[in-house]
Amino acid sequence: MNTNHNFAVQRISNEYTFLQSSKGAKKYIILYTAIKGCILKRELPDAWLLPPTRILSSAMKLSRTTILKAYELLLLEKLIISKIGSGNRVHFKDVEKTMNITKERVPQNANYPEISQKGQAYLKNLDLLNRLPTNDVAFRPGLPPLDVFPVHQWKKLLNTYWMHVKSSGLAYSQSAGLNELKNGISNYLQVSRNLKCRAEQIVIVSGSLQSLYLIANTLLNKGDAVVLENPVFPNVHSVFKSSEAQLIPANLDNEGIDLSKLVVPVNSIPKLIHVTPSNHYPTGVRMTLSRRQELLEWASKNKALIIENDYEHEIANATNPIPTIYTLDRESRTIYVGTFNRLLHPSIRLGYMIVPSYLSEAVEALQEHSHRFVSPSIQMVMNQFIERSYLYKHLERSIVVARERYDLFISEFNLHCKTMYIQPASFSSFHVVAHFKDYVTEAHEREVIKKLNNRNITAFSLSKCYITGEAQLGLILGYAAVRTAVMKYKIKIMSEVI
Fold first, then answer.
1. Is 214 in contact with 361 (CB distance < 8 Å)?
2. Average pLDDT over the chain, rounded to whole?
């Protein structure tokens, strides 16, 4: 008997024994009542697999006929469902409507400790995050062409890993990541981005958000100044605001961040400056070489560190690549952040950062106290994915498919969505920004996003990206994961809503 069935038999047996004192009741009625009671009390939750009649019969010393009759009554009452080859499963979701589930009891005048200032800050800024839980890929930003990911190659590599893994591989792993993957990423960055770093500088994380969390908690005290591009990715805004940092917005022009107009408050010395030079989020502006050099000079003068968030480098630099800030840096002031989540698929939860040597131990110590490590199986498979050139081939394929979908999206959007426009630009990202042609309010923007969501279409707010000042209004739309037939249909729905 497997553990699943063992638990169920134990619950049913206990309830059956309790009800057995009922005089005159037939055994199958008592059993039916016992199982029903377990379901209503949620001792057997929805979708739980019930024991086969043979197993329950043997365990409870009842005839199989008795078990079958009890199951038939439960089927008639639709408390369970039966599928050939799959057995009988509990089918009861509306528990709260039929029974009084006791809520957590909080005594009056309970003297609980207060949530910390930092905890309150993270709670307060939760709404800044772009975190809509949805299965709708149209038109959620941050998604690559999911349907072209080589699932079978990945599955084969994963199966091979589990075939040959040793028991020692199931123990705790290094917090900063496996050396095999760190070497693989180092080689990959050298080939794909002309970026040279030592493997020991690389820290493996679950994504860029965790990288920023680790950096913020390693470097920032309350009130320390951080320079952020304005507009900026809301998740970046949320992390640094929740860290109780003093945020200094830096505006952009068509060359990227404009430090000549940066206003630093008196007695504020910025510790960090966060930039997205390859492909500014959300505008898509690429920082020029001269601006990158100016940024390095500014960081050196102000004794600050640069966070280079290079989240879609391969897309933005597919043609006419510009050296990364990390490559241009001669003083080890750049923390380089990358992620595979936006290149392969978000569910992989795998990213990396390159940190200056003097930060390595502190970052790893913080990781030891929190996330511990990324799954070794995912790390080993990712390394094989790189070594066998699957990653390069997949990226080439993704860029071709995304470019085709970009062209179609722009064409269909311009055809149907007459009250909005997309700023003319070359293909450089997996998302676009659509602006309203006429004057609208932030409330109007929010209402459009809400109504789109009700029609199973996802869009992110442009105004939400602004830290301060007059926010532009519009929609951030991801197109790369949407097949062409679905795209045309969804754009027509979107045009109706807008």
1. no
2. 91
User: For residues 187 and 180, what is the distance between their CA atoms, to the nearest angstrom?
Assistant: 11
d(CA 373, CA 297): 35
Give residues with Cβ within 8 angstroms of 444, minimum separation 6: 436, 473
| pTM of the shown model | 0.85
Task: Choose between 133 and 313: higher pLDDT.
Answer: 313
The ranges of the chain annotated as CATH 3.40.640.10 are 124-130+150-388
- For residue 119, CA distances in Å to 99, 116, 215, 220, 229 come to 35, 5, 17, 15, 25
Which letter does DSSP use for residue 306 in this model? E
Fold of 3-98: Arc Repressor Mutant, subunit A (1.10.10)
Beta carbons of 142 and 430 less than 8 angstroms apart: yes
What CATH number does the domain located at 124-130+150-388 have?
3.40.640.10
pLDDT in tens, 77-127: 999 999 888 889 999 876 445 444 555 666 777 778 888 888 898 888 888
Looking at the chain, the whole-number percentage of residues with pLDDT higher than 90 is 72
Which residue is it, tokens 């945020």?
Answer: 247
Domain with CATH 1.10.10.10 in the chain: 3-98
